[in-house]
Please model this.
Amino acid sequence: MAEKQLRILVTGAGRGIGRSIVDQLKKNPLQHKIAVTARTESELTAAVAGATGETLVIPADATDSAVPQKIIDTVISQWGGIDAIFLNAGEAQVLPIEQTTDDVWNHILNLNTTAPMRFLRSATPQMKEQKFGRVIVIASIAGLMGEGFVTAYTASKHAVIGLVRSAAVELQKYGITVNALCPGYVDTPMLTKGLEVSAQRTGKTINELREVLAAKQPGGRLLTADEVAEAALSFIDSDGTGQALWLDAATKKFY
Ligand SMILES: NC(=O)c1ccc[n+]([C@@H]2O[C@H](COP(=O)([O-])OP(=O)(O)OC[C@H]3O[C@@H](n4cnc5c(N)ncnc54)[C@H](OP(=O)(O)O)[C@@H]3O)[C@@H](O)[C@H]2O)c1
Model:
């Protein structure tokens, strides 16, 4: 990873992929400064436990329109700037389209697309001034292809990749890269929650459904959160921008 100590924000850092990103950052000898946010404070405190560098725990709901700016302001006022942001907080709701109400649609788009836009917008002035920034969005292969029963999620991930591609072009000349990572199915609490809903709809067990998902993925298995975190962290050292990088158990060696 980078040669210098960085000031890094991770959203959705309490569990799953965000937690793995924090775990891997904590192992870095440069002792990066790590700010973490999500709604559940106890999970955030556990995530930063044992860090040898400075940390900031900022419990907040990312769907509140004022929150992203407040979080970015907090990090900048504490540490004088912000170098990298992992925009990872997200949610899926598994529903047939006729049950995808306006409330579901608006909530998923708000969390998965609008909140990342607000974080990026709020960090841009500081990153431009520094002439350096790394913005990594954890999107999904649902941002690149369709899957049934997740229309709001799929639309939100396609849209966030549009945000990444446009911002990357606009910000490249300021030394700011903006990239999306697009993992297939990852073994996290989000996946288990989705499987519980699918089990009710299909009558299959969670284990049966887990095996179906694993078998249909290239590589024949689910990704681990650690694999996704490792791929996400690789963007820190790269000058590449505007990418939407497909990640599955077969391709993971090639990012
Ligand atoms: N798991 C997969 O198969 C998979 C595949 C591809 C992409 N992804 C993407 O990867 C990202 C992380 O997924 P995951 O599987 O690690 O999910 P997860 O295990 O459910 O963790 C989600 C994290 O986001 C936080 N979060 C959720 N709603 C929030 C809100 N309103 N405000 C602030 N924080 C919120 C959660 O904390 P609180 O609930 O405490 O707020 C938690 O820390 C998501 O963007 C997801 O779409 C996941």
Q: What stands out?
A: Residues 102-130 form the longest helix (29 residues). The chain has two domains: 7-184+225-247, 187-222. The CA atoms of residues 26 and 50 lie 8 Å apart.
